[in-house]
Amino acid sequence: MPSATPAATPSPPRRPILELPDELVSQIAAGEVVERPASVVRELLDNALDAGATEVTVRLQAGGVRAVVVEDDGVGIPAAQLPLALRRHATSKIGSLDDLEAVTTMGFRGEALAAVASIAELAITSRPSEQPHAQRIDARSGDLQPAARAVGTTVEVRELFFATPARRKFLKSDATEFAHALEAVRRHALARPDVSFVVWHDGRLVAQWRAAPAAQRVADVMGAEFVAASRPLDAAAGPLRLHGRAGLPEAARSRADQQYLFVNGRFVRDRIVGHAVRSAYEDLLHGSRQPAWLLFLELPPQAVDVNVHPTKIEVRFRDGRAVHGAVRQAVEHALAGLRTAAPGVGKAPSGDRPLSPPPATEAAPMQPGLALAALPATSWPPAAAEPPPAWRTGPSAGPASGAGEAATPYPPGGLGTWARLLATGSTRGDPGAAHATAGEQPLGRAVGQLGGAYVLAENARGLVIVDMHAAHERIVYERLKAAQGAGPLPTQPLLVPVSFAATAAEIATAEAESPTLAALGLDVAPLGPGTLAVRSRPAALPGADLVDLVRAVLADLARFDSSTVVQRARDDLLATMACHAAVRANRRLTLPEMDALLRDMEATERADQCNHGRPTWRQVTIRELDALFLRGR
């Protein structure tokens, strides 16, 4: 019996190439520009700011689905140009390719109004200063009629997506859409503190930000809690300037909902900058916690391409590696307290500051027997052998010779950082904190040990509680980083090379970055077409999955500066080593050893947190202790 042959699939009918109707083209463009009411708010606010507005009012109904009305006091649109403003690719922002490559305005494509008019009812009322009255144009009919209005422009958008009901079904609840629209206004308010913004929803005033200095606007929009739990940064590297605030690791959140990046005043999302900021927090954050940060990046318009996304939410840097390095270094300096001008001073110096590494310093020498780094990491007492050590008190022996305050060469971010922390937020309102000086010992003198895990110390403000393992882990980690230097990591050759299928990009990166891989202890080379072989691994990672490790390193090398990848890999290895070398819980320490730990903490950068982002110490003030025991009542 002859075998059955499958029926041939009929070829699709050939369709001629036709020019799309204008209405369809407009709706396709609208699908790229307008996703929800917040998209309309964003585009109309861009136009208002480009028009030189100093006061902007946003009125929403039903979360913006029913109506979005944006009023401004800008320069206005002449009556003769109102019909042209509704046409696609008609704009006053650019006129040539050179203008496009150096865009300084928020909008520039001339698509927004035409796109919105294709899916909603749109009307514009505008009056420039040279006209005796305003003119109103209806986008559907094109009718131009006199209207009453002060100088400026009002854009009314009603019944969003009425022409495309299928897309309207994808909108969320009114409350959700309003939240997105309000967020769009908040972003513009952060970028332009010189402009007043007012938001109404269903006839109720819900937000108002008056024109104010930049610092005040940040506090008004982000909240006082964000300002209190963040540090300012202000740095410059060549034509690039970066300023804003970096949130403290202890205030990290479970979501990345407080991360704002503005490039030349435009809110964007950029993976390069996001990765750079996250890299700066690597030694400080615990688990998958997300830091809060607000960054304003300013650079020449020619150095950034804003014409890469229909909604202008993404940009492309001409030199992404330079931006990555500058952002990471600036955030690291802010987190390390390198901007402390003097002990107890929390303000950054004015003016631009070159992004250069801090001067090399040495940790304070410790007398043998007192330096905790030399102590064995065995725990005491053995589990269940005897009860935990009791409270131990007595006169402190103080730091050993060579470890005293006067002889300690505190690095930037050392003693100055501790005094600043005590004077700003860690004492929670203690008036005595304002008098912290370089002559004091911020962490005081040890008085005892509690529960085998905590060192108790007394300072001028009250009681200091130190997690000895977490604190010593940070100290050891920073010393290991200083001792490691720039030499290659120890490697372990593999008896049998590990091979895996690789893409052409991975093979090209492995060949180009061979010296960098060798510095990380990885010997990676092509084995054949589409295959890479790993012949050595870092000696400190005997149990690592080499394939995943190499692929992750190659991916980072392809996107970021090789020195950044090497440094991060080094830090990961050293952090693991520091954790195992740090003094363990239930280890009995003498009072001189506790004092040595406190002095080392004061001389170590970032010693207020361990490598995993946990706090290493807490201050309990005399006032708080008095309140616990009802003293003075």
Task: Tell me what the structure shows.
A hairpin with a 2-residue loop joins strand 11 and strand 12 (266-268). The chain has 19 helices and 22 strands. The protein is α+β, with helices and mostly antiparallel strands and 633 residues long. Residues 338-416 and 424-438 have low confidence and may be disordered. The longest helix has 20 residues, at 562-581.
Low-pLDDT stretches are 338-416, 424-438
**Major beta sheet, specifics?**
8 strands, mixed
How do the strands of the widest beta sheet line up side by side?
A: 5-4-3-6-2-1-7-8
Range of helix content: 25-40%
**Alpha-beta classification:** alpha+beta
Number of helices: 19
Tell me how many strands there are. 22
Question: Cα distance, first to last residue?
Answer: 106 Å
Structural Rg: 31 Å
- Mean pLDDT reading: 76
Shape: globular
Draw up the topology in text.
Layout: H1 22-33, H2 37-50, E1 55-61, E2 67-72, H3 82-85, H4 97-100, H5 112-117, E3 121-127, E4 134-138, E5 144-147, E6 152-158, H6 165-168, H7 174-191, E7 196-201, E8 204-209, H8 214-222, H9 224-228, E9 230-237, E10 240-247, E11 259-263, E12 266-268, H10 271-280, E13 293-298, E14 304-305, E15 316-317, H11 320-335, H12 415-424, E16 445-450, E17 454-459, E18 462-467, H13 468-484, E19 491-501, H14 504-512, H15 514-519, E20 523-528, E21 531-538, H16 546-559, H17 562-581, H18 591-602, E22 617-621, H19 622-628
Parallel strand pairs: 1-7, 11-13
Antiparallel strand pairs: 1-2, 2-6, 3-4, 3-6, 4-5, 7-8, 9-10, 10-13, 11-12, 14-15, 16-17, 17-18, 18-22, 19-21, 20-21
